[in-house]
Design brief:
This protein has 57 residues and is of the alpha+beta class. It has one domain. The protein has one helix and two strands; from the N terminus they run E-E-H. The protein has one helix at 29-42; strands at 7-11, 21-26. Strands 1-2 form a two-stranded antiparallel ribbon.
Length: 57
């Protein structure tokens, strides 16, 4: 798997039970690289490369 772009989004639940939405936000190469151990464990048959900023699709 070669990363082309990354983003996150979601929601949280606060102490009062409110559900604030987290808007989409761009992720960095470091964010991707931090997830590589999790991805490798979760999908052992797949190969994940580090995010190369100079890579072209």
């Amino acid at each position: 798997m070669i990363p082309l772009t990354g983003f996150s989004w979601g929601f949280g639940i606060d102490a009062e039970g409110n559900i604030p939405v987290r808007p989409a936000a761009a992720l960095t190469a470091a964010d991707w690289d931090e997830h590589l151990p999790y991805l490798g464990t979760s999908y052992p048959a797949w190969e994940f490369e580090k995010w190369r900023a100079d890579a072209q699709p």
